[in-house]
User: Which sequence fits this backbone?
């Protein structure tokens, strides 16, 4: 049994975080969450009803079992710190958890996070008592600055959202992992379970997956596949991967005969 | 020309059925990857069919002797309440261009009232304005602006737009840039198909979009390729644009501009809309009316005609003989209700998304 994930003093058995966008129906999303075993599920606030009126046309939150998962509101759509902070305050006032996946991507095409605005928003939100999980480019110095600001995790991207290109930022993520004082969640770009396993083998504390599961032909089976991959990768990391060598390593020593003569 | 534009131009050249099918498959994958298995839904809400322009193809053209009305802000609220009940959380406010009836302050009041009513997402499709005139609308909470160039062919443009401010091609062409500068988050471009060769329109639209993508990197752009529909004035399209042409245009746009939104309205038939929904379209209207007061019948008591800028009252009894509502901009081809469209989308494996924006993100609170 691998060690639990600890974020801001709260324990999670699952190291797979799930995004809820892009599913073909809320019912399938719900089934995929269950199959994934995820206990932290992020929802775009812009798709939810924040007025408390239980809007049947914006009821995505009703498909997430609050007994089994913690809803992690996200600020997708915010273009600067001011908008992100305003959205978080509104979500908190609407009774959502004071946890936030801080996403600020002013470029609507590549959805790459704005480091300046993200840091500014994180500083405000932490002071206001939010548990902040910022989505960032794989920038080690930014990761350190956010930890200094009191963020509960850092969430560097493997590749742009929805790109399915895997861990293109490997070298930078390795530095982030080496320097991390909080859990590191590799977020975005993971298109295959093997890529999720790779992130976990590298020592990432968790991964966040959305597109690869949501738009799969069978999101439930794909959720299960990611779950297994994350568990496999974590186990391998905890056990310790064998070092790479250029030559074969026979299980019976080839020079045993030298000792046999004595 | 950059590689994106070169690719687009290659994609709109005549091609075989097999090629188009292969591209449709790729377009479907790209759409799913970037937008998910979802469809944003919106409804047009016509505020006014008064217009100072004379455009040969448009039902609202100023010399058409149609029944006209401008809804009061209270009547706009009534229409919006009806649309909210139907599920819409994204409304497109449409009006003819008439500074007296559809003034900036009138539009600001409409936006403010709809925001107060709880409409999360408000877009405008009204006569082009100066950047500084757009700012109060953005501040009031309007999220997006739609302005179609209609035709990118200057000669055809001049022949179609006979009088009014719309005659100025360049003023209109620069409008999306002004909208971005003023702070609209989403800006819609489009070409009205049926006026000039569609391939040339498509290429010009792609150039327009490409330039805007570079200068306005924070704006989310959507593209529309509406085909002319029957309307008052009985204008006949000068060129025929087939379903296949339209499909090729949509697919080429998706492949060359993977992250750009594509809108398809009720101008198109149910079969075509269902078909293109999975391939590249990301936003649809549904259950639409294209006349002011079309959803609830408000404004009926104020129907009149307008001749040479002056209001002409109707003879008593004239309204009932004409159907008791303002004249529509064009006839729609998909008459299904919003509920029916949503159910069909679900059947196609697409989640209808009604709310995809929260007013907390921008504007005054």
Assistant:
């Amino acid at each position: 049994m691998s060690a639990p994930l600890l974020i801001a003093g709260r324990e999670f058995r699952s190291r797979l975080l799930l995004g809820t966008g892009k599913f073909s129906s809320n019912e399938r999303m719900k089934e995929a969450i269950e199959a994934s075993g995820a206990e932290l599920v992020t929802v775009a606030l812009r798709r939810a009803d924040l007025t408390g009126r239980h809007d049947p046309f914006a009821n995505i939150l009703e498909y997430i079992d609050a007994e089994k998962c913690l809803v992690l509101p996200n600020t997708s759509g915010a273009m600067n710190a001011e908008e992100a902070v305003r959205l978080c305050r509104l979500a908190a006032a609407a009774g959502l958890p004071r946890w936030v996946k801080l996403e600020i991507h002013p470029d609507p095409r590549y959805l790459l996070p704005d480091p300046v605005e993200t840091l500014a928003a994180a500083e405000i939100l932490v002071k206001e008592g939010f548990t902040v999980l910022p989505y960032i480019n794989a920038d080690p110095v930014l990761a350190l600055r956010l930890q200094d600001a009191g963020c509960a995790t850092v969430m560097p991207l493997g590749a742009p959202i929805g790109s399915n290109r895997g861990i293109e930022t490997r070298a930078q993520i390795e530095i982030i992992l080496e320097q991390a004082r909080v859990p590191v969640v590799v977020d975005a770009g993971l298109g295959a379970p093997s890529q999720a396993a790779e992130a976990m083998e590298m020592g990432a504390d968790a991964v966040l997956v959305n597109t690869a599961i949501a738009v799969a032909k069978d999101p439930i089976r794909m959720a299960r596949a990611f779950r297994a991959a994350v568990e496999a990768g974590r186990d391998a990391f905890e056990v310790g991967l064998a070092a790479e060598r250029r030559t074969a390593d026979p299980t019976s020593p080839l020079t045993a005969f030298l000792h046999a003569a004595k | 020309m950059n590689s994106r534009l070169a690719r687009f131009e290659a994609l709109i050249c005549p091609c075989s059925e097999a090629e188009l099918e292969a591209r449709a498959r790729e377009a479907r994958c790209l759409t799913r990857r970037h937008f998910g298995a979802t469809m944003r839904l919106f409804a047009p809400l016509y505020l006014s069919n008064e217009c100072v322009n004379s455009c040969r193809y448009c039902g609202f053209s100023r010399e058409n002797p149609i029944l006209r009305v401008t809804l009061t802000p209270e009547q706009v609220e009534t229409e919006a309440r009806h649309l909210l009940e139907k599920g819409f959380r994204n409304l497109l406010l449409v009006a003819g261009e008439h500074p007296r009836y559809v003034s900036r302050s009138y539009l600001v009041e409409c936006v403010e009232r709809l925001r107060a009513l709880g409409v999360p997402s408000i877009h405008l499709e009204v006569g082009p304005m100066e950047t500084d005139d757009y700012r109060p609308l953005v501040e009031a909470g309007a999220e997006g602006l739609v302005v179609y160039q209609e035709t990118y062919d200057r000669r055809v443009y001049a022949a179609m737009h006979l009088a009014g401010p719309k005659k100025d091609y360049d003023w209109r062409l620069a409008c999306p840039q002004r909208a971005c500068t003023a702070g609209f988050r989403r800006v819609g471009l489009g070409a009205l198909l049926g006026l000039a060769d569609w391939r040339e329109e498509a290429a010009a639209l792609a150039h327009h979009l490409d330039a805007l993508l570079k200068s306005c990197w924070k704006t989310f752009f959507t593209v529309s390729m509406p085909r002319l529909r029957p309307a008052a004035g009985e204008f006949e399209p000068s060129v025929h644009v087939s379903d296949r042409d339209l499909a090729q245009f949509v697919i080429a746009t998706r492949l060359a501009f993977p992250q750009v939104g594509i809108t398809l309205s009720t101008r198109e038939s149910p079969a075509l809309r269902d078909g293109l929904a999975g391939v590249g379209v990301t936003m649809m209207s549904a259950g639409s009316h294209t006349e002011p007061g079309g959803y609830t019948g408000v404004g009926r008591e104020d129907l009149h005609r307008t001749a040479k800028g002056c209001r002409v009252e109707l003879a008593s009894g004239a309204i009932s003989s004409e159907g008791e509502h303002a004249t529509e901009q064009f006839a729609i081809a998909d008459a299904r209700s919003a509920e029916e469209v949503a159910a069909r989308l679900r059947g196609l494996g697409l989640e209808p998304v009604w709310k995809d924006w929260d007013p907390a993100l921008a504007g005054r609170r």
